[in-house]
Amino acid sequence: MTARLIYVVGASGSGKDTLMTYAREKLAGEPQVCFAHRYITRPAAAGGENHIALTPEEFAARQAAKLFAMHWASHGLHYGVGIEVNQWLAKGLTVVVNGSREYLSEARHRYPELLPVTIDVSTDALRKRLLARGREDGPAVERRIQRHEALRQSAPTGLVIRNDGPVEQGGDALVRRILEQQRQGVATCA
Question: Which end of the chain is more exposed for a tag (fewer CB within 10 A), N or C?
Fold first, then answer.
């Protein structure tokens, strides 16, 4: 059986967490698909994705103990994906990870079978979403927009899901992509 790591990326405000939550709920009964939780140095109550909150000291200790399969820093926070994903992949599961666009080349190096899935959104929709959530002021939002545009120019190969419409539209597209990859992995088993 060919295991597949689906590495979902997108700008903050693209709706990546919303679509991943939607897909996780739709695929909850699918035994061959696993969604990894990220370990983040952000309080659990901060909103956004369902993550495991760690203090910077806890994160550093886990990193020193080599408990992360992948880890990176962004926007003043540290993010990690636990080594449990390696066990899931070894069992032939399709594993879905909330990744970082800037870490993608390193993730690809570690996992050659990785499939990047980019959640893309128009610049206008992204600006509105970032302003509506109220985490950053106007200049910080514009910096995020500039970063988004720069990273968009070097968009990874792989799948792109537009998320300018209703949650169900982008969410169902993500579910279809995950199931397609899961079926391809099962189909190669002989």
Answer: C
